[in-house]
Every structure is written in structure tokens, then in C-alpha cells.
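Input sequence (276 aa), recorded before submission:
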Amino acid sequence: MELAPTPEQKELQASARRFLEKEVTRERLAAWDRTAEGYDPDFWRSAAGLGWMGFSLAEAIGGQGASFLDHALLFEECGRALAPPAISSAVVAARLLAFLGDDAPLLGALARGTEQAALAFAERMLTDPRRGTTRVEGGRLTGEKRYVRQGVTADHVVVAARDGDGVALLRVRASAPGVARRELRTFGGDRQSIFTFEAVVPDAWLASGDQAADAIVRARDEAAALALADGVGGLERVLETTVEYVKQREQFGQPIGKFQAVQFRCADMATALAAS
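Predicted structure, C-alpha cell format:
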């Protein structure tokens, strides 16, 4: 089995790295930390212009038809550069809506990055929507969802709600009557939100029963995979920065990289990165 990236994938990563090195600077990161969105509109438009939001969506709906692996390799570069996590949140939600066959014009807008969607699956101390208090009854959605990643910029929310003894997936416009959101502060600084729904009429009923349950698992798996890819990129950057530092930092009249104990630490880091 060939596990190394292909030449095309290496060029994809090299191109993404050049873009991110130019766009994601220390000054910009500091400025983004002070915004509600976690990025600025110019960066979002630039990334969307490269097709990143719809990179692995079908060409028929405005995507580029790349594989999920290719998309993950792109997110390695995002992790290396500390690019805003809003990108992966938008991608995972768009892929779920495409998988469920949602409205084509909306999918095109998500692929272009002109609109964003977010996933609202969990509740306080609960990750299984079938045991939650958020319900859909009589065609209306009522309840509360927490830990909605990048909910602050979402135009649409994909909500998992109890439907009798099962679960349903519904799409709701974030600005719809009866929808409210507020910030949920986290140690990591990512933009999470709490959404409340008061007798909200969904824009679309996406799936129910086993189909909805399977789609939730799929979306969570893809979100975890992209988060791991992001982490691998961060690991690579940390290793490179560490090796550069131990070559320059001197102690007892020589670079500390010449000490065997330091070399062992760096070798352990390289081994962990290769395994990841």
C-alpha cells in the first residue's frame, strides 16, 4: 500500500502552504483573536476564491470534485499555519448537506463560501440526539443545542432533534423567527455557540430514523478526521520550529542540539509525527 502523497497532492499542499504563509501572519492572527468571527472577510473571500469550501463537493453543485483525502491534506496545511477553524466547520456541514441531497442552489452557495452552515447535534452533557430534549413535534422545532462550532457566522444550522422514538435532521435558517444564539466561551478560543429554538418551522426536513442517525455518525467522523489532519499539520510545524531552535540556542558554548538528550527528544517528536 502506498501511503505517501502523490505528486499532485504534494503540489496541492505546496500551493496551499504558499497561500497560507502569505495570508496568515502573526499580526493577522492577533487581530482575528479580537473579532467575533475569528477571521476577517478578506481572508474568507480569498480562501473561498481558491475553492476550499467546496473542494471535495461534486462539480455539479459548484465544487471541485476532489477526494476527502485531498481535502484532509489541505487541512494539514491549515493546521500548520493556524488557519481559522471556521473553514473546517463550514466544510463538514456542507459535505453533510450534500450527502443528504439538500437544495442545489444552497449547496452552490456553501461551495462558494458565500453562505455558511453549522452542525447542532449536542446538548448539555449529551451527545446522543435521541436522548436529548430538543424535539420536533407538529412540524415545529423546540429545544436547545450547545457546542455549535462556528455558530457565530452560520447562516444555516443543521439540527438533530428527537422525532418520536427516533431522530431527525432538520435545516433551519439561523435568522428565522424563534431562533436565538449566544456565545459559548471555550478555553481553546474557537467560536462555539448555544442555539435555542422556540416552535421554529424548519426550512428543510433532511432525514429521519436510521438515515439521520447514520448521517450524524458520518459527519462526526469527518469532523474528527479533519481535526486530526489539522493537528498533524500543527505537529509538523512544531517539530520544524523545535529543530531550528535547538540548532541556534547555545548552552555551555555550543548549540543544545548537539546534546544527545535533546537529540533523543527531537527524534521522539519526529517518530510521533511520522506515525500520525
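Checked by second reader. The chain has a mean pLDDT of 94.
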